[in-house]
Amino acid sequence: MRLLAVAIDAASLLLLLLGGLAVAFVWLLIRSSAGRYDAETGDTLIAASLIGAIVPAWTAWQGARLYRLGATFGQARLGLAVEGARWARTLRLLVHPISLLLWGWVLITLLLAGAPFIWLLVAVVNATVVITLFWVGALLVSVARGSEWRHGRLPHDWLARTRLVRSS
Q1: CA terminus-to-terminus distance, the chain
Q2: Which residues, listed in sequence order, are joined to residue 166 by a DSSP beta bridge?
Q3: Gyration radius from the chain CA atoms
Q4: CA-CA distance, 123 to 107, in Å (whole number)?
Q5: Using CA atoms, how far apart are residues 10 and 58, in angstroms rounded to an integer?
Q6: 64 close to 93: Cβ distance less than 8 angstroms
Q7: What residues have CB less than 8 Å from 6, skipping those under 6 apart?
Q8: How distant, in Å, are the alpha carbons of 14, 19, 41 from that of 161?
């Protein structure tokens, strides 16, 4: 059930990305007279910005749903909810494996912006160490403890002190 909720959330992101690509493609076709002329710099910047804004907008949408309603889009569709404090539900999203998309977007944005090396280092540390290694470490600890794993608490739930439950 959990994996299906994540799949629904990922599919919603994929649909948004495909829709954004289609809109950017049509925009560039219109602005270049169906490809007869090169697109102007401003037009390509608009198209790239449209595509680049999708991942953070999707993450903000999911985070807002989780904060206000206690469930992401996929979880709500399956009748699930995250139990815990509002700040903990937001933290859960930031340490969930699906948030690697957000951290990857942050890293790419910093690279494209020519950010100082220290900012890139912070983004890499967040994306790899905090999410990946810490998540795997928490998974190993929760499996070793046994009780958390048997009660359905995965590492992101354990770290954020939340629990995924059926909504009523």
Answers
A1: 16
A2: 80
A3: 19
A4: 6
A5: 10
A6: no
A7: 74, 98
A8: 29, 36, 48
The span from the CA of 92 to the CA of 157, in Å, is 6
Positive/negative CA dihedral, 115, 120, 122, 123:
positive
> Beta 163-166 vs 80-83: how paired, if at all?
antiparallel
List CB contacts of 101: < 8 A, sequence separation 6 or more: 13, 55, 59
Predicted confidence pLDDT, tens digits, the chain (168 residues): 778 988 999 999 999 999 999 999 999 998 888 877 888 888 898 998 899 899 889 988 998 998 899 899 999 999 999 988 888 888 888 878 777 777 777 777 878 888 787 777 777 777 776 667 766 776 677 667 665 555 557 777 877 888 888 886
Which has the closest alpha carbon to 129: 109, 100, 106?
Answer: 100
Closest among 98, 104, 51 to 72, alpha carbons compared: 98
- Are 6 and 74 spatial neighbours (Cβ–Cβ below 8 Å)? yes
Buried b (16+ CB within 10 A) or exposed e, 22-49: eebeebbeebeeeeeeebeeebbebbee
Pair of tokens at residue 152: 């359905």
